[in-house]
Amino acid sequence: MYLFDTHTHLDAPQFDEDREQVIARAVEAGVSKMINIGFNRETIPTTMQLAEKYDYIYAAVGWHPQDAIDMKEGDLDWIASLCSHKKVVAIGEIGLDYYWDTSPKDVQHEVFRKQIGLARELKMPICIHDRDAHEDVVRILREEKANEIGGVMHSFSGSWETAKMCLDLGFHLSFGGPITFKNARVPKEVLAQTPLDRLLIETDSPYLTPHPFRGKRNESAHVKLVAEAAAEIKGITWEELAEITYANALERFGIE
């Protein structure tokens, strides 16, 4: 049975001591493909290194809203040049973050819009980071015609109303560890209503660790726990859910 972790950070410092073992554990757990996310000046090169080293690890490259203030003139060109690499499958994670006050909103908006424009130019899907900014994220996606390329709402945390707007724009919704939490009513309700052909799963490791490991470091092997929880919500077997989300990811990211 194949699993696809569509959003992970295996290059994070939390894995410096045992990265190879973490990756091996994911493969043993049935995770046959992963997308590592390079989101700033430090993590884009390390993401590319992982994608070049492992056949089954792919890359997304973009500029995270928390780091928007640090984006320089040539960085968009750098991202554009990497998008021609055969292992780069998306631009991301990009978007807005109103929770961490690290970059002014106007700067985040500008960087977000530029990257959507680049993705449309290159016909690449985008991976969206949206924290406490649902209204503005959807508005900018509409204004910048992101429906022409689509992409993924990573670790989706909005309401069903927001989810419907994202689905209408041609986006897939991706869910991770929070759907395993007892108190996570909204993500579970949204997942229950999300069409199976628009559903993806992820870990966002080393963050958002699923139950029963909550509070510990997350890793890609735990995407199986996400698949099991999602399958229970959908009323199907976890194997069926794994198969569906694997096929969805291959199609969404244009992976053969």
TrEMBL record:
**Which Gene Ontology cellular component terms are annotated?**
cytosol
Residues at which a divalent metal cation 1 binds: 7, 9, 93, 204
Query: Per its record, what are the GO molecular function terms?
Result: DNA nuclease activity; hydrolase activity, acting on ester bonds; metal ion binding
Say if the entry is tagged with keyword tRNA-binding.
no
**One Pfam short name:** TatD_DNase
The entry's a divalent metal cation 2-binding residues are: 129, 154
- Keywords from the named record: Hydrolase, Metal-binding
For this protein, the record's NCBIfam families field holds: YchF/TatD family DNA exonuclease
Q: What is this protein called?
A: TatD family hydrolase
Species of the source:
Paenibacillus agri
Give the lineage: Bacteria, Bacillati, Bacillota, Bacilli, Bacillales
